[in-house]
C-alpha cells in the first residue's frame, strides 16, 4: 500500500473509532486489521463515501397548488 493511501485509510479508521468507540472499543484495531481489508473498514469507508442526498426543491409537489 502506498503511503498517501495508507494515511487516508488510517484517518478513516481513526475517525470511525471516534464515532463508534462507545459501542466497539477496538474499532480502530478491527478497522486496520488485515491491511484495511475487513468488513469493519468497508463499513467505515461507507460513512465517508455516501454523500448525503440533497433535497431537490423541484421534485417536491406543491401541496398548495389548486
Automatic annotation (TrEMBL):
Gene3D superfamilies: Crustacean CHH/MIH/GIH neurohormone. SUPFAM superfamilies: Crustacean CHH/MIH/GIH neurohormone. InterPro entries: Crust_neurohorm (IPR031098), Crust_neurohorm_sf (IPR035957). It holds the Pfam family Crust_neurohorm. One of its GO terms (biological process) is circadian rhythm. PANTHER family: ION TRANSPORT PEPTIDE, ISOFORM C (PTHR35981:SF2). Belongs to the arthropod CHH/MIH/GIH/VIH hormone family. This is Uncharacterized protein. It comes from Teladorsagia circumcincta. The lineage of its organism: Eukaryota, Metazoa, Ecdysozoa, Nematoda, Chromadorea.
Amino acid at each position: 500500500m502506498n503511503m498517501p493511501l495508507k494515511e487516508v485509510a488510517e484517518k478513516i479508521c481513526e475517525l470511525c473509532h471516534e464515532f463508534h468507540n462507545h459501542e466497539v472499543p477496538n474499532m480502530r484495531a478491527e478497522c486496520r486489521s488485515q491491511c484495511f481489508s475487513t468488513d469493519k473498514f468497508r463499513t467505515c469507508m461507507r460513512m465517508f463515501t455516501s454523500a448525503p442526498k440533497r433535497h431537490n426543491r423541484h421534485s417536491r409537489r406543491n401541496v398548495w397548488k389548486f
